[in-house]
Structure to design on (99 residues):
């Protein structure tokens, strides 16, 4: 139980899972990549499944939520890839390859 609480706390502090207007490149580290991307994919998969269950074929009920799902993944993965270009390290490459 304590391990689960510690894992949840670590995920809640993961900068890749925080809402942001501008990317905080200075606080993202290689150890954030695997758990952050995996948790994000799990959340977005749940969002997509919920959308499929409740789909209404309208712009605001289908397209807008799909765009939010795609945009969130695109922004976070773009942040990680940008870091790989400007702050490359073996740890970051390994984390990217793992996910």
């Amino acid at each position: 139980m304590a391990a689960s609480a510690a894992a949840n706390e670590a995920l809640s502090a993961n900068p890749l899972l925080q809402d942001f207007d501008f990317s905080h490149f200075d606080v993202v580290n290689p150890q954030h990549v695997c758990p952050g991307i995996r948790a994000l994919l799990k959340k977005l998969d749940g969002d997509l499944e919920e959308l499929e269950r409740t789909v209404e074929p309208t712009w605001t009920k289908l397209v807008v939520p799909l765009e939010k799902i795609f945009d969130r993944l695109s922004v976070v993965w773009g942040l990680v890839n940008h870091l790989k270009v400007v702050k490359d390290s073996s740890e970051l490459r390994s984390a990217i390859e793992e996910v």
Notes: The chain has a mean pLDDT of 91. The helical segments are 2-12, 30-53, 59-86, 90-98. Residues 2-98 form one domain.
